[in-house]
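User: For a benchmark we're assembling, each entry needs the component sequences followed by a predicted structure for the full assembly. Here are entry 17's components. Please fill in the structure.
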Amino acid sequence: MVVYSRADRIFRRIVTGGALIALLLLGFISVFLVMRSAETFRQFGLDFITGSEWFSAGEDPLGGAVEGAVVEVDESVFSIGPMIVGSLVVALIAMLIAVPLSIGGALYIEFYAPRSIYRVLVSLLDLAAAIPSLIFGLWGIQVFTAIGVRWATLLNDRLSFIPIFSVEFENFGRSPFVAGCVLAALVVPITTSVSREVYSRTPRDLIDTCFALGGSKWGAIRSVVMPYGKSGVIAGAMLGLGRALGETVAIYLMLNLVFRYSFEILDSAGGNVASMIALKFGEATDKEISALIASGLVLFIITLIVNMIASSIVARTTPRA
Amino acid sequence: MSTVANAGQLTTAEPRRPWAVSRSKRLLGFGRMLTFAIAAFVATILTPLANFDGWAVAFLLINLAWVIGIASKLGAKERRDAVLRVVITSLAVLAFVPWLSIFVTVILKGYRAVYPGYFISDMRTSTPDDELNIGGAGHAIVGSLIMVAIATVVTLPLGILTGIYLTEVRGRLTFLVRFIVQSMAGVPSVVAGLFLFATVVRSMGKYSGLAGGLALAVLMLPTVSRTAEEVLKLVPDDIRSAGYALGARQWRTALLVVLPTVRAGLSTAAILGIARVIGETAPLLLTSLNTNGFVWNPIGGTVASLPTYIFAMFMYGTEYSTARAWTGSLVLLALVLFFFIIARRLGNRVALKANANRRK
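Assistant: Structure for entry 17:
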């Protein structure tokens, strides 16, 4: 039994206080978002999540200054169904591209890269994970869009019999596919560096044992490295997914937001909650702000669930020191 | 090993490496790659694959086809190895090319509008469309630094306290605190912006650098506390035991023994946090917006920052304004790199120290 002196107890209380503030901050954010979005949820209920219309009637243009002006019924309708679906679609495209690339990249760095470029690659990768998403957006528009549109055209040419690759108008820029590719580029450094870290912790003995038993590199990777790093890769992918779902500016620049359910990923129309918030925020009315905060709450809950799953996977599988 | 000294034989013995690739084989490999490259080029003409990316894909596919082709001569084991090698290398190339391309693009495009004045002048007397030797992003750099400073002042104590709580105090809430702080790392940046808009901006009645800095703090806290925890975990328990053995209570051990050991590591925590948030755009679009001049007062209304400056310049959409945006990106990336290098330097020192401690 540890005995703490009075000074110790004060110290512990102060430290606990600091940790509690950090804890409460999150609680405070949630409570605040719930409070401020209550109005919207009360008015629209579940329609806010399933509906597909966003119309702000605007403030009274006369500012209520003219007496006798007819007070119209507020016709504002706010709902973000297509945006939620769009967020999921774009994030899914990004993850479908990013996860195989990250696994390949991580395995390459750890097991194939020449020793001379290993350190350089690792440092560059860490730096790449810190590139601001805004720069990804700029690069996406000025460099990648041309490439992405070409591939989209190709996909549409050859595979348009599959519903998701068909389009109404042959205008492929600012489509979920191209935005998803840029988002994948953004997610890859994050998931790669997490996966690489896990792979690098594979016990050397196990790999050597595999070779000693006559196993090939393929055997070692398949039967030792991959199973050992599986949970880490999943956690990295979830982190990336959280990032992809909450990404704002890159998507804002890359995607044409349209309030319509659409699963045609090559069409120049998509949805994304986070960038919609940034887009509508500029000239939002008071009621609209409340609706935007409600959208933020929905996004917050979605990413929180994803991240909690990720951190519980990490917590469950990280060997206790 | 033999005790018979035969110096002559020792000096003439050539080190042989039977596994080394011979020169002719290397030449052959090079020739093969060249042939594939040309074949891929032909493919870009004959098939719908086009441009450099099409060429790269054709090149990878030809490589894969060749490996599968010759693999029929190999045993099952070698075949799988060879195919896996090509697949993993291609995936890695595809994974690395985008961000390498970003580094190159930012440098090439950002170089254009760099001139000394870019770092000291603002945009009050020039429009985004002016010649590139007028105006600059000095105000944006200052604004960014002020907001990041605010975020650091707020998060550093909180982050370190959280770290100490998780490693030294280990109270009843340890699991919850760790879990929540980790989950907080996933708060979308735009949500942090909304939160600060709805609280600070609304209650002050105006946009401000303070709100922007606090929004950054929300995003920075998880990184700082996480890194602080990791660093404190590196401190060997021997050091703590030594502290207790000398009669120090927990608080003295923690404050006077453990914390000084990891001073460099805690700086790393702060710097990694800074590198994480300095490029955040979305929260600043909701809290501090953008202006054209220097603003030194964090509660005096809208403040420019590098990300919002880049964003505004890019949205303006003319040739010169876009060039300014790229230069801003170059500055931003250089700042991130700068913080990263410092963090790495300090981090290495921490690792060395911890190892030295362990060895003793």
